[in-house]
């Protein structure tokens, strides 16, 4: 059985979704895949008991370690005082990441995300192009599969389309439940996001595009025309939706999960144009 780093006297809090990564080999693997050097500034999300924090600090020039749990943050701050780690007690869902500036060189975000906030936190991080060019995030394996899925597969959905429109995504490491304390009931995986300078395909209105994707993929058993017509997210007449599908070159009887990113972008652009002509909305850039 591989050695585990088990923090003495520490109990994970269910309400925070805490599962501490404690297997040394997994900790080293994450730090190595982060590609750090003395010129790298790292923001770690979910520092917990500091196991990953210590591995990152050995390789990076500076580490900002965010931890929501006040008790854990205070203990870690006391332990690492005088090191290259600055511990910040904060909620990552509301923290102003733009307030942190790299001391020099590259800036990366690394984290073992709490399961209960992983998806909204991922979107918060990747929807802001100036925030950070590269992220390395531990999530549930099922979420990782949905992020990296290709069109046509059972895991391909809203998460894949939106994440891949904004970033290159790659599953780089699988981690079993036994590497955590307490052990979760599911496997985990490390996903690398390399943020694009702009959306992969042109999208004139990102917020409306998200609504189109959610409407199309919200009812997977329906053909795309019916899914869009029946969605309250769009509020467009059926004939406009059918026309937009035709202009985008998409067969209305296809299932939405077969559409490529390019086809979603084409559809979104056509529906945005139709929405403006129909007088039901304006473009939000």
Q: What does this entry look like structurally?
A:
- The protein is of the alpha/beta class and 285 residues long.
- It has two domains: 14-195, Vaccinia Virus protein VP39 (Rossmann fold); 206-277, Helicase, Ruva Protein, domain 3, CATH 1.10.8.100.
- Helices cover 35% and strands 18% of the residues.
- It contains ten helices and nine strands.
- The protein has helices spanning 24-33, 51-59, 70-79, 118-126, 141-148, 158-166, 206-217, 224-229, 238-247, 261-277, and strands at 20-21, 41-45, 62-67, 85-89, 107-112, 134-140, 167-175, 180-181, 188-195.
- A seven-stranded mixed β-sheet has the order 4-3-2-5-6-9-7, with helices on both faces.
- α3 (70-79) links the parallel β3 and β4.
- α1 (24-33) crosses α2 (51-59), α5 (141-148) crosses α6 (158-166) and α9 (238-247) crosses α10 (261-277).
- The longest helix has 17 residues, at 261-277.
- The termini are far apart.
- Residues 1-8 have low confidence and may be disordered.
